[in-house]
């Protein structure tokens, strides 16, 4: 029996290694022109089959021409990375932000991954902002704080500005909006650089500070550097011996960890940034202004968070409330529907019935070629239940199919503790998807004063809800697409633009370098002027 187990483990290991080798070979070898044309045809077919609003912003004749031109431009063999660079800008012409193109990089063996986990790439510690046509270091998580506020002139000899402008062609906002591009390329610059150049161990960056220019090599380094050799340490054994912690210290440490886990469950947590997803506090010179920062609507026990927060707001008779949706890329419909119940001042229907291209969108989502076989097997077991549910929930009207999320489409009253005071909402180009749907309601009902810049997500809704990730068979490039049109009942004309601020306030470089929140400062000044 033991021998059989060892044989099985060895077999799995060999299959895994072979799979990794096969994948790496597939994405690095040159694909024939015919095969790449086949990938393009399959992708366009997938979009036409599953995307309910494919021609909402770009007419069919124009999009047909774009894809035909792409095929004509590919007249020589190329690898997957080169193909991705030509494909992504064409897919972006759909002008639907949830249609995305991703490139799978090199895969590693378990041994290689174990070694990589012990290292970090200093380049990824850079928090950059693309402003005024230049790339700046907004923050640096590494040891060299002098990099903060410096302009990145070039990376490995290439202009940082030109790189950013190229990367901006590889994704889209919803419709004709422009504010998302600089914001999103700032947030994802490292990701697009990786897709562009592949796996690297070091990069030489050239920085500029006023009139001085200097270079620095950012490397892949150990997360926990080894301590100096014992012979070089002058401290005595008594000095370096760790102090024994008291029982009281251990108890406090356990309680602190327990409290932190509790907060993570309630507020959500983003490990990469070491920030909570949801934050609530009182600000201002007299600590009377409620401030809620929501980084996304994706994780954590949101109901408990909002119940506690709005109970505090009600108990303190708060008269000013700032809801910060900047850089909030969206998330769960359930959460924004729940939150709006605390902000609405009259009965509301949160979303309309969602347009889809077929009656079983959930099954189409699961049964994709990127879904693991184990999930497909489980999905097939529940197929009768899911299919029946989908058929009940969908209906046909004017030759279009609609899915009814009854929980969110029915009329609801505001919650008993709904906030009725003065509401300010902070938005920017990275306010997208679910945060834009929430903003549409607040804007349409004149419930809030919006400060900042136009949202990257459209006022009239977005194609999201359920997603399908499709892998192109030859290049292995992945394309993600939403399957449902999610929209609020309210509409604006012209179509294709985001929620626009009542007062446009844009951050400037000096304030960013000084750590000043330009938009929030405007609200604080306005509140105290009113008072």
TrEMBL record:
Domain Tail specific protease: 318-506
Entry-linked InterPro entries: ClpP/crotonase-like_dom_sf, Tail-specific_protease
Cellular component aspect of the GO annotation: outer membrane-bounded periplasmic space
Biological processes, Gene Ontology terms: proteolysis; signal transduction
Organism: Algibacter amylolyticus
Coiled coil: none
Region Disordered, residue ranges: 225-268
GO molecular function: endopeptidase activity; serine-type peptidase activity
Classification via Pfam families: Peptidase_S41
Protein name: Peptidase S41
């Amino acid at each position: 029996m033991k021998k059989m187990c060892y044989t099985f483990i060895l077999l799995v290991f060999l299959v895994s290694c072979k799979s990794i080798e096969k994948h790496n070979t597939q994405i690095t070898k040159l694909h024939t022109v015919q095969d790449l044309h086949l990938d393009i045809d399959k992708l366009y077919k997938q979009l036409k089959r599953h995307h309910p609003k494919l021609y909402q912003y770009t007419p069919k004749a124009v999009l047909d021409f774009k894809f035909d031109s792409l095929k004509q431009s590919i007249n020589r063999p190329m690898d997957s990375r080169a193909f991705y660079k030509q494909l992504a800008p064409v897919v972006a012409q759909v002008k639907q932000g949830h249609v995305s193109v991703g490139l799978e990089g090199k895969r590693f063996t378990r041994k290689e991954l174990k070694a990589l986990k012990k290292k970090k790439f200093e380049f990824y510690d850079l928090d950059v902002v693309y402003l005024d046509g230049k790339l700046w270091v907004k923050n640096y998580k590494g040891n060299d704080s002098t990099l903060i506020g410096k302009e990145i002139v070039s990376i490995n000899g290439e202009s940082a500005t030109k790189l950013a402008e190229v990367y901006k062609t590889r994704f889209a906002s919803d419709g004709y909006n422009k504010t998302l591009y600089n914001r999103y390329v700032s947030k994802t610059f490292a990701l697009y650089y990786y897709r562009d150049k592949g796996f690297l161990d070091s990069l030489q960056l050239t920085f500029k500070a006023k009139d001085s220019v200097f270079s620095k090599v950012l490397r892949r380094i150990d997360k926990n550097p080894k301590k100096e050799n014992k012979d070089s340490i002058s401290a005595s054994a008594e000095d370096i011996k760790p102090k024994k912690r008291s029982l009281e210290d251990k108890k406090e440490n356990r309680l602190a960890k327990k409290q932190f886990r509790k907060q993570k469950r309630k507020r959500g947590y983003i490990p990469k940034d070491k920030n909570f997803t949801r934050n609530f506090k009182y600000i201002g010179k007299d600590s009377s202004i409620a401030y809620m920062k929501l980084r996304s609507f994706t994780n954590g026990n949101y109901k408990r968070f909002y119940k506690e927060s709005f109970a505090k707001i009600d108990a303190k008779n708060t008269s000013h409330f700032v809801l910060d949706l900047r850089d909030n890329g969206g998330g769960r419909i359930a959460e924004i529907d729940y939150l709006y119940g605390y902000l609405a001042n009259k009965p509301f229907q949160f979303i309309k019935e969602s347009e889809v291209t077929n009656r079983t969108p959930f099954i189409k989502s699961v049964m994709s070629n990127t879904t693991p076989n184990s999930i497909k097997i489980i999905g097939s077991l529940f197929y009768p239940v899911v299919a029946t549910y989908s058929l009940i929930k969908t209906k046909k009207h004017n030759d279009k199919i609609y899915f009814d999320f009854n929980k969110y489409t029915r009329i609801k009253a505001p919650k008993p503790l709904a906030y009725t005071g003065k509401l300010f909402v902070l938005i920017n180009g990275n306010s997208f998807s679910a945060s834009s749907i929430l903003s549409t309601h607040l804007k349409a009902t004149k419930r809030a004063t919006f400060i900042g810049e136009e949202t990257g997500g459209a006022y009239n809704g977005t194609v999201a809800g359920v997603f399908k990730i499709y892998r192109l068979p030859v290049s292995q490039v992945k394309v993600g697409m939403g399957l449902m049109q999610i929209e609020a009942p309210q509409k604006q004309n012209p179509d294709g633009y985001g929620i626009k601020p009542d007062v446009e306030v844009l951050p400037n470089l000096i304030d960013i370098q000084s750590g000043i929140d330009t938009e929030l400062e405007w609200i604080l000044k306005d509140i105290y002027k009113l008072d």
